[in-house]
């Protein structure tokens, strides 16, 4: 293939995808990927409700319980970094399916654990599967949705996180009333069979295929997508293609790109964002049920309170999905982080004092409004910052650094709780969100309304 032909082929799949009108094809693809994302988050959310029961059954100290709560994040760090590199090398779809197999098997194994050591080992394995899937879901979806609606759909996909958190709480409320925490992990293994739906309905990313020089395969997949869109819209032709300038230097792939002169600053920015945001979030949310129990609530009531509080996350992610397209990614990120910091501090003050049920739930719901909104912005912003040949690696590495924060968070809370009390714990969490907001405000870039290829070109010019 001549150089000019190669360049034309290299831009064709991405530009053809960008000109497509948003229709039911995109919505169906979104639903399939988002549902897999939901099942993964369901397993992840369970520990917030089960940690108190596990701590009681095994007679753990707060520090030991914190370490057990952090075990899955060790695996998530491993899974995130490995899946990113593997997906950039071997493709998004096969690694996505493998991740579902791993977390399904591991969730079942957690249900068989008879001591804290074996449970911790299985939680690490579960974390590997979850850590693999989460960055792949955002990478895959970002490469199919056109720029004009990409932010909205990525934010809505992450809205599955508060919904999964609530569903895990409702399941825990009814299951723990009659069964043990092991039953919850057993139920969490069942959705792994959803991988057959992924295998059947989700194509490989044409953007990834063209980045590997497999232009004919990319073109064939886009041909099929265009055919589906025409059928759904009942039209014979689609809008004209507007070619976008693309990076021609395709020598570096994966991790190497993250530390190139063009992307180094952005990598450090997104790593700082993920580390401090997840340090604060998981340090608080992994312990929130146990902290309520420590305040004197019985197990099932603390679970129900946590569910009520999590309901604030639903309007939070819906608001974030609107804001990322109206205000932009940077303002949305900074506002959700600062709002979260304020409400975390207020909730900590309310939870550590003798306040009414309404005050506790209201403050907690507002805290989750901003924190789950923050998640929606994180998953929107991160995949936009990297070129196709390194997008999965960029998302995976950001998630890995975030999982280090996730790993430290529950453990730090378990250690400092006896020393500073609940108000001190929530003050530390609020500080983490303030630091993350400053990093984005000072070093972040705006990506709203630009195609993934245009963002790469802007970074090169700068």
How would you describe what is shown here?
This is MFS transporter. Residues 29-448 form the Major facilitator superfamily (MFS) profile domain. By secondary structure, the chain is mainly alpha-helical. It contains 20 helices and no strands. The two termini are 32 Å apart.
Helix tally equals 20
Note the overall shape: globular
Please report the distance between the alpha carbons of the first and last residues. Answer: 32 Å
Task: Please describe the biggest sheet, giving its number of strands, its sense, and whether it closes into a barrel.
Answer: none
- What is the beta-strand fraction? under 5%
Radius of gyration, in angstroms, nearest whole number? 22 Å
Structural classification: mainly alpha
Organism: Herminiimonas glaciei
Subcellular location: Membrane
Transmembrane segments: 28-51, 63-83, 153-175, 181-202, 268-290, 302-324, 331-350, 356-379, 400-417, 423-441
Membrane topology: Multi-pass membrane protein
TL;DR?
With 462 residues, the protein is mainly α. Helices cover 80% and strands 0% of the residues. Its main location: membrane.
Strand and helix layout:
Elements: H1 3-18, H2 24-58, H3 62-90, H4 92-110, H5 116-142, H6 147-158, H7 160-178, H8 181-189, H9 195-201, H10 206-211, H11 215-233, H12 255-258, H13 264-285, H14 288-294, H15 299-310, H16 313-326, H17 329-351, H18 357-384, H19 391-443, H20 452-461
Helix pairs in contact: 1-11, 2-3, 2-5, 2-6, 2-7, 2-8, 2-9, 2-14, 3-4, 3-5, 3-19, 4-5, 4-8, 4-9, 5-18, 5-19, 6-16, 6-18, 7-15, 13-18, 13-19, 14-15, 15-18, 16-17, 16-18, 17-18, 17-19
